[in-house]
Amino acid sequence: METILTNYPGVKRIVRFRFSQAPKNCELNAASGQKVICPYNKVDVQFFGVPLLVSTTKVENNGEITEAKLTVRSSQDLPFLGWCYVAELEDGSSYMLGSDDRMPLVSRGSSSGVPDGEAKVKSYEITFKGAFAPIPCLI
Asked: Using CA atoms in the order 63, 103, 15, 52, what is the torsion angle rounded to 10 degrees?
């Protein structure tokens, strides 16, 4: 079993859009080398620090499965279901986590803030698995 790790440096913008608005045939387009076009209605995700986008590809039994993971710290409450996420990099390329038939998994980790008060910054991990993850796209 071979494992390939890919880092996508320089995430400068993160947006999200409803799962129901995801472009059709996302993974088929990715397989053919085409970029999918994200819908017009997007919501910006505010974040702190430097988000990290990493993908891990495991090759076994003559097949590949890739897991893309976007780690971000935000003061917003990100929804756990019903949204796809897009990370735009400093070089102008964009990658989508989610497709027209599968949602990404969103989990919230640690939070920080004042004692006995509302958490100010929450850590989120957005994970998407598939044959093509993350999916190249145009914002």
From this structure: -50
Largest CA distance in the chain: 53
Cβ atoms of 71 and 52 within 8 Å: the answer is yes
pTM above 0.90, yes or no: no
**Residue 9: strand, helix, or coil:** coil
Distance CA 128, CA 134 (A): 7
Tens of pLDDT along the chain (139 residues)? Answer: 567 778 888 899 999 999 888 888 888 888 888 889 888 888 999 998 889 999 999 887 778 888 999 999 998 888 889 899 999 999 999 999 998 888 999 998 877 665 665 557 889 999 999 888 899 999 8
Cβ–Cβ under 8 Å, residues 40 and 79? no
